[in-house]
UniProtKB/TrEMBL annotation:
Primary enzyme class: transferase
A GO cellular component entry from the record: EKC/KEOPS complex
Molecular functions per Gene Ontology: ATP binding; hydrolase activity; protein serine/threonine kinase activity
Family, as annotated: Belongs to the protein kinase superfamily. BUD32 family.
Protein name (Swiss-Prot/TrEMBL): non-specific serine/threonine protein kinase
Primary location: nucleus
Organism (species): Coilia grayii
Amino acid sequence: MALEVENAKLPYLSKCRLIKQGAEARVYRGTFLGKPTIIKERFSKRYRHPVLDEKLTHRRTTQEVRSILRCRKAGISTPVVYFVDYTSHCIFLEDLEGSITVRDHIASSQESGRDPVCLNTLAEQIGKILAKMHDEDVVHGDLTTSNMLLRQGSGDAKPELVLIDFGLSFYSALPEDKGVDLYVLEKAFLSTHPNTEELFQRLLKSYTQSSKKAAAVIKKLDEVRLRGRKRSMVG
Ligand SMILES: Nc1ncnc2c1ncn2[C@@H]1O[C@H](COP(=O)(O)OP(=O)(O)OP(=O)(O)O)[C@@H](O)[C@H]1O
Ligand SMILES: [Mg+2]
């Protein structure tokens, strides 16, 4: 398609299908060594100084790859990294074919009024995976229900929860950073999915039960919430 060829900086991208054009990255679907592959290409932002732009783009690419590898080492599901091209800032990732975002899953479950127990189980699953990630000192930086995928298991197996989009992630052992990570998710979660306060509480409960370091993080989350509220009252 004309759009794809025009956008593609690299010959191999011209053979791929553009699936998402974001503000910072384009996501393509294609193949790599015969395997279904997602290619995430970070592009330059013309309004940024070229040196700063290169630095930022490079940092996001390396952080995304590093955090994915660190998570995978700890047994947290994230896509396999097949290849990284640091010149064109492209990451080649395992394509989780047939997966859906947690966002779409919650929305369709709410719409159809299907079994709320499933959503409770999902919230617990999310709390658990985030506790594990934070215990590895990985802070995601952009936690939303769009950055979590559900991969259908075979047969009756429970769908697997997979974390994606680590471009804004960083390493930190600070409860404050982890608290902010949860705060970002809380804001996104409650604004995307109406009437899910209880569901989110369930997520936090599961987080608390899964991480030994949770008490300090939840304390920070409370502080950050308070700060947020004060700011909105001041206007
Ligand atoms: N490994 C993957 N397998 C299947 N689908 C994926 C995979 N990675 C991304 N996607 C799909 O592409 C969408 C966008 O991917 P991603 O969140 O990584 O990029 P983005 O949000 O554009 O990044 P940014 O935060 O830099 O703007 C996801 O919501 C998902 O639907
Ligand atoms: Mg995303």
